[in-house]
Automatic annotation (TrEMBL):
Residues 8-29 have a biased composition (Basic and acidic residues). It comes from the Eukaryota. Residues 131-273 form the Conserved oligomeric Golgi complex subunit 3 N-terminal domain. One of its GO terms (cellular component) is membrane. GO terms for biological process: Golgi organization; intra-Golgi vesicle-mediated transport; intracellular protein transport. This is Component of oligomeric golgi complex 3. It holds the Pfam family COG3_N. InterPro entries: COG3_N (IPR048320), COG_su3 (IPR007265). Residues 1-37 are annotated as: Disordered. PANTHER family: CONSERVED OLIGOMERIC GOLGI COMPLEX COMPONENT 3, CONSERVED OLIGOMERIC GOLGI COMPLEX SUBUNIT 3.
Length: 314
């Protein structure tokens, strides 16, 4: 088999080339007539093409079609069996197993179809890869979208629950504030009532002390008891609109009368003891009547009793 370096176009003489070029202008009205310069250019191109080698990738059978039938037969006879099988498979792929390339136009048509087929095969491979990748991305996006929708639904549910709890919390807060306000008012009211009741509750304590047989006018708690009794009488007198005003006023006055009787008894007893002691010291002296002249003015009976108590103990 001849090497690619030896595979050249068939040699044509200048005369044959001129005849072929003149055949181009042989028509009466040619579409694109050649000028003399263009004709010379064709001759120069032919001369340059004689020295150019054919591409190694060009099928040998195509070279044979471009030259002559005899040359094609010679090259075909020297092709190895594997090369013929490869070429046959290529033509079968292009659906050209029953066609032969005999002209340049057929070669260009075959080459164009081959290029389109190669582009389609290459694009098909990338399309498959891209389609698989895009399908995977689409599945991932669908999964993410599903998760996002689920998260949005969950967030909407949480928002509804938050609004519900917030509303209930606000209502509870307002109710608590109202209860605290009412509690504060009730505490103030209870303290006020307790303060008012303290004067009435003191009645029982004062009455029990006055009725006690061990009570003495000289005891330390007697004077504070009289002061508390005087405060209670003044408070009851300043609130005549109370329901049990007459009852408690009477009871407090009774306690005051008991205290005055105790002081009177203690004063009389003290004066009698003092008279007896003076009589023992001066037996021959005539009896002198003891009298107390009070030049003081008192606001309450308790003040008078306290003054008498202090003077009787001197």
């Amino acid at each position: 088999m001849a090497s690619p370096a030896e595979q050249r176009l068939p040699e044509l003489t200048d005369q044959e080339t001129r005849e072929k070029v003149s055949h181009w202008d042989r028509r009466a009205d040619p579409t694109a007539p050649l000028t003399d310069t263009q004709t010379e250019s064709v001759l120069e191109i032919r001369a340059a093409a004689e020295a150019a080698l054919l591409p190694a990738e060009l099928p040998i059978e195509d070279i044979c079609s471009l030259t002559s039938r005899s040359l094609r037969s010679a090259f075909t006879a020297t092709l190895p069996e594997s090369t013929e099988e490869v070429l046959l498979q290529g033509f079968q792929t292009l659906e050209l197993e029953n066609h032969r390339i005999q002209t340049a136009q057929q070669f260009f048509s075959w080459f164009s179809k081959l290029q389109v087929q190669m582009d389609q095969d290459e694009a098909s491979k990338y399309r498959c890869v891209t389609r698989d990748a895009l399908q995977g991305y689409q599945e991932q996006c669908d999964a993410i979208l599903s998760d996002v929708n689920a998260a949005l639904e969950h967030l909407q549910s949480l928002q509804k629950q938050y609004l519900f709890v917030s509303t209930k919390t606000g209502t509870l807060h307002e109710a608590c504030e109202q209860l605290l306000k009412e509690q504060s008012e009730l505490v103030d009211l209870a303290e006020s009532i307790q303060e008012k009741l303290s004067y009435f509750n003191a009645l029982e304590n004062i009455n029990s002390k006055l009725n006690s047989p061990t009570l003495s006018v000289n005891s330390e708690g007697f004077i504070p008891m009289l002061s508390k009794l005087d405060e209670c009488v003044e408070y009851v007198l300043s609130h005549p609109h109370f329901k049990d005003y007459p009852v408690y006023l009477t009871k407090f006055k009774q306690c005051l009368s008991k205290a005055m009787l105790l002081i009177k008894s203690h004063t009389v007893s003290t004066l009698q003891n003092l008279t007896a002691q003076l009589s023992k010291r001066v037996p021959a002296a005539p009896k002198v009547q003891v009298s107390l002249v009070c030049k003081h003015s008192f606001d309450t009976r308790s003040d008078c009793l306290i003054w008498l108590f202090h003077n009787s103990t001197k």
